[in-house]
């Protein structure tokens, strides 16, 4: 048997890391950071504990990696959607639909992103405050800028963008909770997402604009 190529080794490495990440998230949602042990993660990933330690030196190293990767994924999506050249109302619809659909397909991730702000200070230690600030800024900043743009262009009502953001995001979270309940039949999902988005936008769109 010929030795594996560097590409094959890298693929195996990435697959194993993804297994570990998926297992870490699952155990984290059950036990939290403090209650999770590396043995729990190895068992959930169906791999030897030593192999988990081969990739991550300890639990906190693993959780810093998981949090950082998923925070970056969220940042990339938010920026690519809300900072695009698309029309304001269309951007707000696309943004909401992504989170609603994700809540239906990956309900556990709704809980994950809801939980991590409270755990970032513990996971990142001395850097926790800075990481949390950056996370919040990256999550809310692009939305604020889109809302301000919409107000300037007359597409949205001339209200305080901070108030619009709070109400919009609060309503979106309610819709995400409904979509992640597991009680929405697939044939009704699209209609329900449309209804949630219409509710979100109805109060902020400037119909005179």
TrEMBL record:
Residues 14-74 form the HTH tetR-type domain. Signal peptide: none annotated. It comes from Paenibacillus validus. Keywords: DNA-binding, Transcription, Transcription regulation. Pfam families: TetR_N. It comes from the Bacteria. The keyword DNA-binding applies. Residues 37-56 bind DNA. GO terms for molecular function: DNA-binding transcription factor activity; transcription cis-regulatory region binding. The keyword Transcription regulation applies. This is TetR family transcriptional regulator.
